[in-house]
Every structure is written in C-alpha cells, then in structure tokens.
Amino acid sequence: MTRELKPSTVAVHAGTRRSQYGEVSEAIYLTQGFVYDTAEDAEARFIESGPDEFIYARYGNPTVAMFEERIAALEGAEDAFATASGMAAVSGALTSMLKAGDHVVSSRALFGSCLYVLEDVLMRFGVEVTFVDGADLSAWKEAIRDDTTAVFFESISNPTLQVVDIASVAELAHAKGATVVVDNVFSTPVWSDAVKQGADVVVYSATKHIDGQGRALGGVILGSRDYIRKTVEPYMKHTGGSMSPFTAWVMLKGLETMNLRVRAQTSNATAIAKALQGHEKLQQVIYPGHASHAQHDLVKRQMEQGGTVLSLDIRGGKPAAFRFLNAIEVGIISNNLGDAKTIMTHPATTTHQRLSEEQRSSLGITDGLVRISVGIEDTEDLVTDILTALAAV
Fold this sequence. Notes:
This protein is of the alpha/beta class. It contains 15 helices and 12 strands. The longest helix is centred in the middle third of the chain and has 32 residues, at 245-276. The chain starts with 6 loop residues before the first helix and ends with a helix. The mean pLDDT is 95.
C-alpha cells in the first residue's frame, strides 16, 4: 500500500503472506521445522535468516510472523515477538533485558502474577525492584535513579483501574536512560497510543481482547527491531516461550474483529457505569471512562475512551459480593477478561488471593470489590442483570 491506512484496516490486512494457492484466510503452517535444499543452505540460514526463511518453530514460523507483523503495524511498533501467554510476554520482556545488580522501578498496583515476577523471580536473581504509587509522578521522580535500567507499569491497573500517565513517566525514565515497559492489556490495542506517548516496550496478553473469545492463551512483546531481535528473540527461543502456529492463526482471526468488539464492549461499559452511579448497594463504581474517576481527564488525553472493564465495590464485603455474583444470570463467573462474554470475578479470592490482606488493602482491593469485564451482549440486558443481582444483595 502506498497510503497510510486506518487501524481497523491494518488489523485486517497487515502482514498477510499468501502461498501459491492465493488463500483468503491466512494459512496455518503447522510445522515445527523447515527443509533446506543443501547443507550449504542450512549453514547460511543459521548464520542469517531472511524475512521469509525459517529454522524452527520456536524461533519463528510463517503464521506466527503474520501475527507479529500485523500487531506491530497496528501498535505503531517496529517489531514484535509472539509468546505462549500474556505472562510469558511480561516475564520475557523484563527478564531478557535484566541482570543481577540492575534496578527496576514499578508501580505497586499490578496483577498478582506480575507481582510474582517482580517480587519473587527478579529479586531472587539479584535485580533490585522499587515499588511506587503509579499515579504519583513525584514518587516516580524520586525512585528513578541514574542507574535505573527499566520502569514497569500497567497503563490501567488490575483490578482497581488506576491509570498511569505514560507520557510523564516516560519523560522521567528517559531522562535517566531507563527503558519504559508498559503492560497495556486494559487499554487494548484499539484505545492505545502507548508507543507515541513514550513507551519503549509494550506488552499484551493476547488472550484478552486480541482473541477476545475465550479460545487460546497468547501474548506479544512489541518494541524496536533491535530490542525484539537482539534481546527478546534470543532469550525466548532458548527458554521456549514462543507462540504456536495454531494460536497465531486464532489471534489473526481475533484481530479482524477486535475493533468492533472493543468498541461495543466500551459502549456497554460506559452505559453500565452511568446506570450504577449512586446506587445504594455500592460503595463505589470505578470506571476510567466516567467523570467520577479520579483520573478521568488523563484517560481522555491518553486513550480517549475508558475501556472495557469496570469494578464495583459492593457494600457488605465478601458475603454481599458473593450474593451479587451468584444472582447474575447473563454474565458468567470466571477470571479472564476482554472477552465477548461479560465476565465477573472477585479479585480478593481469585486473581489476587495470594496477596496478604495488608497488600490487598494497600492496593484498594476490598472484600466487596467485583471486577466486571463487559462483553458485547445487549446493553439493556446487561444493565437489568446487574441491577437485579444488586437487589439480591
């Protein structure tokens, strides 16, 4: 193409590689290895592979390459490496660049598994990690040192939906020569502009909005070509966290409809947040897209819309939250998010249960907190379902 295409078009067409058969749907190259015509060809490929030359599926595969090229084009990154899961992407992005003695500054409000990687894995291997309140720019400024290697944060935290100012944190980090790594799953590739706002590395759990239909685990790391091919690829291909060709095909199919799904989900989430404001059974409705959110102005600047997830703090703690969840009929109880189906979970007893009560309290994860990942169902059905369930509390 000679002209610049809009994101929804890029998500359908970028990176397509057609075989001699001219297939419409991308081919699944379900092979673990590749054949060389001569021993000399094998030797040459191991020295340097061309864009359409592959060695082993753990190193790269035509179907996986299509997904990597498409998501990189959509995100505005130079390159991408597809991984077996979202957590493989988080751990791979960080571990591939860090060594004993390095210093990382991270927001404190993180998904439980991300906390495990930072607190248990990286610290165990000699990486120093400093945690800060992600919304407090003065805390970032104080914590980032001349020897800081990287900063890490979720652009919107899970599950309390605290928003981190990407551009401002990136400016502080870059002034000290630190790499900015952003877990962007709640912002979604549809509402994200993280690369333009200063993120050096963007990580997604492709399991969420990219697949968005509950079918497969996957992740992706995006960044500069040098970082992806010289830092991430050697680490991932030797440690085995690569995405399978079949999963890459599922993700390619997901990208085709992601824009439609995420916009519908966001519209539903906005309507639900509006309908629930001031409800007597709720301590708080947390939704970045609503004016009541403490960082609503930042959300409008950073991602335009509030995303697909909201959280309810239900009066009465765990018993009330459980009564609410058990009364839901349209939504389902599970621990995934970003799905076409509305999914609800109780973080204190599921995704963040490994944290101490003190840690959960410091993050704002109360016993009454319920995270709702809003789907594409009829808006009226969802609002009625939630209001009916609240009446049962």
